[in-house]
Amino acid sequence: MNLKYINRELSWLDFNARVLQEASNKEVPILERLRFIGIFSNNLDEFFQVRYATVKRIADAKTSIKNNEENIAAKKLLADITSKVINLQTESSLILESIEKSLKKENIVFINENEVLESHKEFLKDYFIKKISPALVTVILSNNKLHDFKDNKAFLIANIKLIDNSIFYALVEIPRNISRFVVLPKNDNKQYIMLIDDIIRYHLDIVFSFFNYSNIEANMLKITRDADFDIDDIDLSKSYVKKILEYVNKRKRSNPVRLVYDKNISTSTLNYLIKKIKITSYDSLIPGGKYHHRSDYMNFPDLGRSDLLYPKEKSLDIKDLKIESNLLDQISEKDFLMYTPYHSFSYLVSILRQSAIDPSVKSIKITLYRLSKKSNVISSLINAAKNGKKVLVQIELQARFDEENNIKVSQQLKEAGVDLIFGVKGLKVHSKICLIERFKGNKKRFYGFVSTGNFNESTAKIYSDFTLFTSNQKILKELQKVFDFLKANYKIYDYKHLIVSPHQTYSKLFKLIDNEISNVKKGLKGQIIFKLNSFTSYKLVDKLYEASKSGVKIKLLIRGICCLIPAKIGLSENIEVKSVVDKYLEHSRVYVFENAGDIKVFISSADLMTRNIEKRVEVACPIYQDNLKEQILKTLSISDNDNVKTRKINQSVQNEFISNPKIAIRSQWDTYTYFKNNLD
């Protein structure tokens, strides 16, 4: 078959396999390996809630002449996904067993309900009665009653056999407000860990003490529901906030797309559940081990064992930018680049804090997408409003899985007198921009920043993102146009400097790619570098194929999905795709064009996905200052030369490591060293 594209769903599963590689890698510290298991599981949950759910909807649609081919393809894809997921789940279980064995050598021991030591019994009983039991939700299931299986939760399903041989079932929810991992008292210098699932199992006699039973079996299961809804489907007569809340509640009760169950569960119990939960397709059934909801391993306790974690590097200062001095005055002299987590995120918060009390600052405008639960960014904006500044916040209530937090934040901002924009009909606002208006005498001057990532203190510690701090008036006046569009969507603007979705991204990127093609035809060097999270736009894939055939050299550094097939004869010989998965999440988006030696560099909020280009408000910003351009190009060069954590991406063999035993280059380590040395 002459394929032009890699399927995006299967490509995503290949990305998650790279995460699982980190969990299996014995060079990675043991507790970090556990956390990669958690990331793998969390990724898979979201995949089933969104991408699998979309494919399943197509497969389940009534067939007609028009959609018959699409329907057949979707059913085949579901089967391919399920097969691949089962293999990955099986592999993840084996990796987890291996990690637990390695932890045992470090005197960290997981025990289950059958391995409880005599010295721990009193502690566990006390912990169960005081901590777990008050939070426990136990539901006796009835054949004649509808039951609430809402949301994406993990349950213990208890099969209770009474002395008269009758059987009934009960669901025991795993509490989400208690740490999944309970650290037991040390014994013989060994640190014991028990999951609350097993503590519940150990105390089922207390839970079901009302019943005269002869036997109880308890197995775990996890339900994943469709989370991919169109907000416009909701009643438009309601307020936007109410619509979003209705959307969130609808998601909790949506169709199940996956049931992961303990493979040791009895057939009768499983069949009973399938009917109760209304699983319609056996493609959605995934056999697993004893424990589910492994995303909790992302928050596994440190246990005071820093020797089993990656070393914590101190966030660096930005060269020549003094955080204790007036930051806007310094930015008025030249631009600065922040690259978190290598640089401290405190610079961004400090700019907002200083602006909140600076008498010469008159207004602050900012877009917000995903926020930290305890956000200093929000505190700074509220502080500014209390000081009489005009504060305008575009907060995206449709940021999937962050809707409720963003609604809560919007209410806090509104109470403080902040002006709010709740988005653009039919579009998500995904841009990461801020504009500060300041007067010196009677002269108005703009300051601001543009980022590749969210203004989020928590993720800034683990996501790699570029942020440009600038007083370039040409760029900032165009940011003003973006905010004007957000306020009045009928106003469509032209931009000479920024690349703004949904109106210009295709045309501007095509023009830049065509320029590279033209330069090659003139005998000049042509090169394109894209650093992205995902690349799924077939229009841009085809354009890069065209550029490759013309002789343009193309390097793609892509963490996640990539639909483009590299190094294919007659199609993409000049395209190379690499992926780095390591300690930090590679999150920055960068576009680079050789431009006959006068290199153009853009940082962007947008991945090259159809949704980002056509259905979101995104901003890509040029880097004009030579030293900052040099910094970005250097980080890309370091990533390109990584031979420790880089995998090759291609059509056939996936995730093969690139290695050079002579000189080890680990890009995240070397990037930190580069910026550290740059301070001297």
Q: What is the approximate shape?
A: globular
Radius of gyration: 27 Å
Per CATH, the superfamily of the largest domain is Polyphosphate kinase middle domain
Share of residues in helices: 25-40%
Q: What structural class is derived from the secondary structure elements? A: alpha/beta
By CATH, the topology of the largest domain is polyphosphate kinase like
Task: Specify the number of helices.
Answer: 18
- DSSP strand tally: 27
Question: What is the subunit arrangement here?
Answer: single chain
For the sheet with most strands, the description reads: 10 strands, mixed
* CATH structural architecture of the largest domain: 2-Layer Sandwich
Strand content: 15-25%
Mean pLDDT over the full residue set: 89
CATH top level of the largest domain is: Alpha Beta
Distance between the termini: 56 Å
The figure for the number of domains is: 3
Uncertain runs are 231-238
List the helices and strands and how they pair.
Elements (H helix, E strand, L loop, with lengths): L7 H17 L5 H31 L7 H38 L2 E3 L10 H12 L5 E3 L13 E9 L4 E7 L7 E3 L7 E5 H7 L1 H4 L5 E13 L14 H13 L3 E7 L4 H11 L7 E4 L38 H7 L2 E5 L5 H12 L3 E8 L7 H11 L3 E6 L7 H13 L3 E3 L6 E2 L3 E8 L2 E9 L11 E8 L2 H15 L11 E3 L3 H17 L5 E6 L5 H12 L3 E6 L16 E6 L4 E2 L2 E5 L6 E5 L5 H5 L1 E7 L3 H15 L5 E3 L7 E2 L9 H12 L2
Helix pairs in contact: 1-2, 1-3, 2-3, 10-11, 14-15, 17-18
Report on this structure:
It is a single chain. With 680 residues, this protein is an alpha/beta fold. It folds into three domains: 8-302, polyphosphate kinase like; 327-487, Endonuclease, Chain A (2-Layer Sandwich), CATH 3.30.870.10; 499-678, Endonuclease, Chain A (2-Layer Sandwich). It is built from 18 helices and 27 strands. The longest helix has 38 residues, at 68-105. The model is unreliable at 231-238 (pLDDT under 50).
